[in-house]
Amino acid sequence: MIWVDVTNLPHVLFFRDFIARSKAFVTAREHSSLTKLLEARGIDYFIAGRHGGADAREKLLESARRIQALARILPEGVDIGVAKHSVELPRVAFGLGFPCLQVVDNEYAEHQNRLTLALCTRILVPRALDHRLLLRQGAEKKRITRFNGLCELAHIRGFVPRDPEVKGDYILVRPEPSHAAYFREKDRTQELINALAEAGHRVVALPRTSKKYKHAVSPRSLDSLSLIYHARVFVGGGGTMNRESALLGTPAISYYPQEPLGVDRFLMRRKLLVRGRIEDIPSLVEELAEKKDSLRRKAERLRQSLEDPIEALDREVSSLRDLSS
Question: Which domain holds residue 251?
């Protein structure tokens, strides 16, 4: 039996088809709207633990509690563990003596990577990622498998845009991942929204928490892909939605303040994602909005040229089965 640990919101879209196909045993943690997203996709799951928030001590304590909870609820017959940047699954799999595969697309998530990569039987990464950093963080080169694609291709598989909850032109903003262990900067989202509003733009914000932003509306919809698709321009302080936007051909601006990930640089080189300082973003919005039609066509060509990450995942899991049988 395959065990899939879903620990963050984007992992629902990444693993949904794999879970359906493999009839996996799924675990999750209490974190933002994660359980609502699982339920909306019809995925059965078992809760083990919760996100520790922004405090390092609470993260450590909650991770320790979660390891205990997972060890208790895993059923007999689990023989492979699969996750994406889960801190707990590789440690539980190693302790219980079965192989695991970790999907990694952030080479700068050093805290998570150092705790897990040395314990992983297989590490699946996009070719655009700088895998040399993973070697410094404990990964063995022979355990790394690279695929020619991006994880977000799985998110938009079969995507058909729905009518958006928000009507008319709007700029969609996604805040920085301020609760993530790898994020070390000040949250400047309100400053960005103020600048966009002062320039006359209508702003829709997709908060990561229950935080409210002035001069912006927050939709109730869980269908973030449709909101991205219909946005005039997307502006993101993180990574996943920036890449979803770029792959959908929505003009995408990153204001992520730290070193860009390899997967982001890949999209920047292809002019599907641009970086902008907060003070420059209002004028960048006007410039990029005019290019939406051409960006749609360019994104479609890129999608057709890349490898499906779930096909790569299927191959690696089959290979692990052969090794363990």
Answer: 171-305
